UniProtKB/TrEMBL annotation:
<feature type="domain" description="Manganese/iron superoxide dismutase N-terminal">
    <location>
        <begin position="3"/>
        <end position="85"/>
    </location>
</feature>
<dbReference type="GO" id="GO:0046914">
    <property type="term" value="F:transition metal ion binding"/>
</dbReference>
<keyword id="KW-0560">Oxidoreductase</keyword>
<dbReference type="InterPro" id="IPR036314">
    <property type="entry name" value="SOD_C_sf"/>
</dbReference>
<dbReference type="Pfam" id="PF00081">
    <property type="entry name" value="Sod_Fe_N"/>
</dbReference>
<protein>
    <recommendedName>
        <fullName>Superoxide dismutase</fullName>
        <ecNumber>1.15.1.1</ecNumber>
    </recommendedName>
</protein>
<dbReference type="InterPro" id="IPR019833">
    <property type="entry name" value="Mn/Fe_SOD_BS"/>
</dbReference>
<feature type="binding site">
    <location>
        <position position="27"/>
    </location>
    <ligand>
        <name>Mn(2+)</name>
    </ligand>
</feature>
<dbReference type="InterPro" id="IPR001189">
    <property type="entry name" value="Mn/Fe_SOD"/>
</dbReference>
<keyword id="KW-0479">Metal-binding</keyword>
<comment type="similarity">
    <text>Belongs to the iron/manganese superoxide dismutase family.</text>
</comment>
<keyword id="KW-0408">Iron</keyword>
<dbReference type="InterPro" id="IPR036324">
    <property type="entry name" value="Mn/Fe_SOD_N_sf"/>
</dbReference>
<dbReference type="Pfam" id="PF02777">
    <property type="entry name" value="Sod_Fe_C"/>
</dbReference>
<comment type="function">
    <text>Destroys radicals which are normally produced within the cells and which are toxic to biological systems.</text>
</comment>
<feature type="domain" description="Manganese/iron superoxide dismutase C-terminal">
    <location>
        <begin position="93"/>
        <end position="194"/>
    </location>
</feature>
<dbReference type="InterPro" id="IPR019831">
    <property type="entry name" value="Mn/Fe_SOD_N"/>
</dbReference>
Amino acid sequence: MAFELPPLPYDKTALEPHMSAQTFEFHHGKHHNAYVTNLNNLLKDSPLVDKSLEEVIADSWQNKNAGVFNNAAQVWNHTFFWSSMKPNGGGAPTGAIADKINADFGSFDAFKEQFKQAGATQFGSGWAWLVIENGTLKVTKTPNAETPLVNGQTPLLTCDVWEHAYYLDYQNRRPDFLATFLDHLVNWDFVNENLAKA
Ligand SMILES: [Fe+2]
Protein backbone atom coordinates (compact mmCIF):
# COMPACT_ATOMS: atom_id res chain seq x y z
CA MET A 1 0.00 0.00 0.00
CA ALA A 2 1.28 3.41 -0.88
CA PHE A 3 2.43 5.77 1.84
CA GLU A 4 0.41 8.93 2.33
CA LEU A 5 1.27 12.44 3.45
CA PRO A 6 -0.09 12.67 7.00
CA PRO A 7 -2.08 15.82 7.75
CA LEU A 8 -0.49 18.39 10.07
CA PRO A 9 -1.56 17.86 13.70
CA TYR A 10 -2.71 21.55 13.80
CA ASP A 11 -3.77 24.26 11.37
CA LYS A 12 -0.98 25.70 9.21
CA THR A 13 -1.50 29.09 10.92
CA ALA A 14 -1.36 27.61 14.46
CA LEU A 15 2.33 28.23 15.13
CA GLU A 16 2.41 31.84 13.92
CA PRO A 17 4.29 34.08 14.39
CA HIS A 18 7.06 31.55 15.13
CA MET A 19 6.48 29.38 12.06
CA SER A 20 4.40 30.88 9.27
CA ALA A 21 1.61 29.34 7.22
CA GLN A 22 3.77 30.00 4.17
CA THR A 23 6.56 27.87 5.65
CA PHE A 24 4.08 25.04 6.19
CA GLU A 25 2.73 25.40 2.66
CA PHE A 26 6.21 24.75 1.30
CA HIS A 27 7.65 22.50 4.01
CA HIS A 28 4.66 20.19 4.49
CA GLY A 29 2.79 20.76 1.23
CA LYS A 30 5.79 20.62 -1.12
CA HIS A 31 8.90 19.14 0.57
CA HIS A 32 7.31 16.49 2.81
CA ASN A 33 4.83 15.67 0.06
CA ALA A 34 7.64 15.20 -2.48
CA TYR A 35 9.43 12.71 -0.18
CA VAL A 36 6.19 10.66 0.01
CA THR A 37 5.72 10.76 -3.80
CA ASN A 38 9.36 9.88 -4.48
CA LEU A 39 9.26 7.00 -1.98
CA ASN A 40 6.12 5.53 -3.52
CA ASN A 41 7.65 5.74 -7.00
CA LEU A 42 10.87 4.08 -5.82
CA LEU A 43 9.00 1.25 -4.06
CA LYS A 44 6.52 0.51 -6.85
CA ASP A 45 8.26 -2.65 -8.04
CA SER A 46 10.21 -3.39 -4.87
CA PRO A 47 9.62 -6.23 -2.37
CA LEU A 48 9.62 -3.48 0.28
CA VAL A 49 6.33 -2.11 -1.00
CA ASP A 50 4.24 -3.84 1.70
CA LYS A 51 6.61 -3.10 4.59
CA SER A 52 6.10 -0.50 7.30
CA LEU A 53 7.95 2.81 7.00
CA GLU A 54 10.28 1.78 9.84
CA GLU A 55 11.05 -1.51 8.08
CA VAL A 56 11.79 0.31 4.82
CA ILE A 57 14.15 2.67 6.69
CA ALA A 58 16.01 -0.21 8.39
CA ASP A 59 16.29 -2.30 5.22
CA SER A 60 17.43 0.50 2.92
CA TRP A 61 20.01 1.69 5.49
CA GLN A 62 21.43 -1.80 5.86
CA ASN A 63 21.56 -2.35 2.10
CA LYS A 64 22.91 1.13 1.38
CA ASN A 65 20.01 1.97 -0.91
CA ALA A 66 20.44 5.71 -0.57
CA GLY A 67 17.53 6.73 -2.79
CA VAL A 68 14.96 4.75 -0.82
CA PHE A 69 16.58 5.50 2.55
CA ASN A 70 16.73 9.26 2.03
CA ASN A 71 13.08 9.54 1.05
CA ALA A 72 11.76 7.06 3.64
CA ALA A 73 13.73 8.62 6.49
CA GLN A 74 12.67 12.13 5.43
CA VAL A 75 9.01 11.03 5.46
CA TRP A 76 9.45 9.65 9.00
CA ASN A 77 11.56 12.57 10.28
CA HIS A 78 9.11 15.21 9.06
CA THR A 79 6.06 13.48 10.53
CA PHE A 80 7.96 13.27 13.84
CA PHE A 81 8.96 16.94 13.57
CA TRP A 82 5.37 18.21 13.13
CA SER A 83 4.38 16.37 16.32
CA SER A 84 7.44 17.73 18.12
CA MET A 85 5.73 21.15 18.05
CA LYS A 86 2.43 22.58 19.26
CA PRO A 87 0.83 26.01 19.66
CA ASN A 88 1.94 27.70 22.92
CA GLY A 89 4.61 25.05 23.39
CA GLY A 90 8.20 25.33 24.50
CA GLY A 91 9.65 26.57 27.74
CA ALA A 92 10.28 24.36 30.74
CA PRO A 93 9.27 20.71 30.35
CA THR A 94 6.61 19.03 32.45
CA GLY A 95 6.06 15.48 33.61
CA ALA A 96 8.60 12.67 33.63
CA ILE A 97 10.85 14.26 31.01
CA ALA A 98 11.45 17.25 33.30
CA ASP A 99 13.01 15.04 36.00
CA LYS A 100 14.89 12.95 33.44
CA ILE A 101 16.43 16.05 31.83
CA ASN A 102 17.59 17.30 35.21
CA ALA A 103 19.04 13.89 36.06
CA ASP A 104 20.85 13.33 32.75
CA PHE A 105 21.89 16.86 31.72
CA GLY A 106 22.17 18.54 35.14
CA SER A 107 19.58 21.21 34.32
CA PHE A 108 17.07 22.29 31.66
CA ASP A 109 19.39 25.16 30.71
CA ALA A 110 22.25 22.72 30.12
CA PHE A 111 20.00 20.63 27.87
CA LYS A 112 18.91 23.74 25.95
CA GLU A 113 22.51 24.77 25.34
CA GLN A 114 23.44 21.30 24.04
CA PHE A 115 20.39 21.16 21.78
CA LYS A 116 21.01 24.63 20.33
CA GLN A 117 24.67 23.81 19.84
CA ALA A 118 23.83 20.56 18.03
CA GLY A 119 21.42 22.30 15.67
CA ALA A 120 23.65 25.28 15.02
CA THR A 121 26.77 23.18 14.33
CA GLN A 122 25.15 20.62 12.01
CA PHE A 123 27.02 21.65 8.87
CA GLY A 124 24.64 21.92 5.93
CA SER A 125 21.33 20.08 6.15
CA GLY A 126 20.22 17.81 8.98
CA TRP A 127 18.43 17.41 12.26
CA ALA A 128 18.92 18.06 16.01
CA TRP A 129 17.52 15.39 18.32
CA LEU A 130 16.79 14.48 21.91
CA VAL A 131 17.07 10.68 22.08
CA ILE A 132 17.25 7.99 24.71
CA GLU A 133 19.89 5.27 24.45
CA ASN A 134 20.37 2.52 27.03
CA GLY A 135 18.18 4.45 29.45
CA THR A 136 20.08 7.74 29.17
CA LEU A 137 19.00 10.94 27.42
CA LYS A 138 21.36 12.34 24.80
CA VAL A 139 21.40 15.25 22.38
CA THR A 140 22.53 14.27 18.89
CA LYS A 141 22.60 15.67 15.39
CA THR A 142 22.30 13.83 12.09
CA PRO A 143 23.19 14.91 8.54
CA ASN A 144 20.70 15.07 5.67
CA ALA A 145 18.03 12.36 6.09
CA GLU A 146 19.80 10.27 8.72
CA THR A 147 17.66 9.32 11.68
CA PRO A 148 18.60 8.01 15.16
CA LEU A 149 16.39 4.98 14.41
CA VAL A 150 19.34 3.47 12.51
CA ASN A 151 21.76 4.18 15.35
CA GLY A 152 20.00 2.14 18.02
CA GLN A 153 18.54 5.24 19.64
CA THR A 154 14.90 6.09 20.38
CA PRO A 155 13.99 9.61 19.18
CA LEU A 156 12.03 11.73 21.67
CA LEU A 157 12.15 15.19 19.99
CA THR A 158 13.54 16.69 16.81
CA CYS A 159 14.13 20.02 15.12
CA ASP A 160 14.62 20.20 11.36
CA VAL A 161 17.63 22.40 10.58
CA TRP A 162 17.48 22.14 6.79
CA GLU A 163 17.28 25.67 5.38
CA HIS A 164 13.77 24.93 4.06
CA ALA A 165 12.63 24.69 7.70
CA TYR A 166 13.47 28.27 8.63
CA TYR A 167 14.61 30.37 5.70
CA LEU A 168 11.25 32.03 4.93
CA ASP A 169 10.81 33.09 8.57
CA TYR A 170 14.40 33.51 9.83
CA GLN A 171 16.52 33.76 6.65
CA ASN A 172 20.07 32.73 7.66
CA ARG A 173 19.47 33.03 11.44
CA ARG A 174 19.41 29.33 12.34
CA PRO A 175 20.33 29.98 16.02
CA ASP A 176 17.28 32.27 16.37
CA PHE A 177 15.08 29.55 14.90
CA LEU A 178 16.48 27.00 17.38
CA ALA A 179 15.94 29.37 20.32
CA THR A 180 12.33 30.00 19.21
CA PHE A 181 11.75 26.26 18.79
CA LEU A 182 12.85 25.68 22.41
CA ASP A 183 11.08 28.71 23.89
CA HIS A 184 7.75 28.60 22.00
CA LEU A 185 7.20 25.42 20.01
CA VAL A 186 8.35 22.20 21.73
CA ASN A 187 5.50 19.77 22.44
CA TRP A 188 6.60 18.28 25.78
CA ASP A 189 3.44 16.12 25.88
CA PHE A 190 4.70 14.35 22.74
CA VAL A 191 8.17 13.97 24.29
CA ASN A 192 6.61 12.45 27.43
CA GLU A 193 4.58 10.02 25.30
CA ASN A 194 7.73 8.91 23.50
CA LEU A 195 9.63 8.57 26.78
CA ALA A 196 6.85 6.42 28.25
CA LYS A 197 7.04 4.06 25.25
CA ALA A 198 10.85 3.90 25.20
FE1 LIG B 1 12.39 19.60 6.31
